[in-house]
C-alpha cells in the first residue's frame, strides 16, 4: 500500500492509501479529492488535474515531460517549475509518502 498526501491551497490535507499501478489523478478522483477533476480521463488532454509536486519529491516524480504534458500545462493557471499533471504521475513503491499540492483553481 502506498500513501499519498494531497494538500489543498487552503492547507486542508487528505491522506489516501492506494496500490501501485494507478496514476495520481485516478487516486484523487476515486477518493473524492476536491480540485482534481480529470475531465479527460487521464489522457493528458486537459489540465484539470494540475498539481504541484512537493520539492522533496520532484527527483522521484521527475519534471513535466516535454511534449504533451508541457503543452497541456500551458492551459493551467499559476504554473510553477514543480507543476505536473497528476494523470502523468505513475504511482509505484518509490512514491510512498508523495505530497502533492493543489492550485487554488483549475482551468
Topology:
Blueprint: E1 2-7, E2 13-18, H1 24-30, E3 50-53, H2 58-61, H3 68-73, E4 83-85, E5 99-101
Parallel strand pairs: 1-5
Antiparallel strand pairs: 1-2, 3-4, 3-5
Give an account of the 3D structure.
The chain is α+β, with helices and mostly antiparallel strands. The chain has one domain: Beta-grasp domain (Ubiquitin-like (UB roll)), CATH 3.10.20.30. The protein is 16% helix and 21% strand. The protein is built from three helices and five strands; from the N terminus they run E-E-H-E-H-H-E-E. The chain has helices spanning 24-30, 58-61, 68-73, and strands spanning 2-7, 13-18, 50-53, 83-85, 99-101. The protein has a five-stranded mixed beta sheet with strand order 2-1-5-3-4. Strand 1 (2-7) and strand 2 (13-18) form a beta hairpin. The longest helix is centred in the first third of the chain and has 7 residues, at 24-30. The chain is globular, with a radius of gyration of 12 Å.
Amino acid at each position: 500500500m502506498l500513501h499519498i498526501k494531497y494538500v489543498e491551497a487552503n492547507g486542508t490535507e487528505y491522506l489516501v492509501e492506494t496500490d501501485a499501478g494507478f496514476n495520481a489523478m485516478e487516486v484523487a478522483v476515486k477518493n473524492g479529492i476536491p480540485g482534481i477533476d480529470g475531465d479527460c480521463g487521464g489522457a493528458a488532454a486537459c489540465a484539470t488535474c494540475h498539481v504541484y509536486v512537493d520539492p522533496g519529491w520532484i527527483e522521484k516524480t521527475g519534471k513535466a515531460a516535454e511534449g504533451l504534458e508541457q503543452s497541456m500545462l500551458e492551459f493551467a493557471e499559476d504554473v510553477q517549475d514543480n507543476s505536473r499533471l497528476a494523470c502523468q504521475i505513475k504511482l509505484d513503491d518509490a512514491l510512498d509518502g508523495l505530497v502533492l499540492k493543489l492550485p487554488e483553481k483549475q482551468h
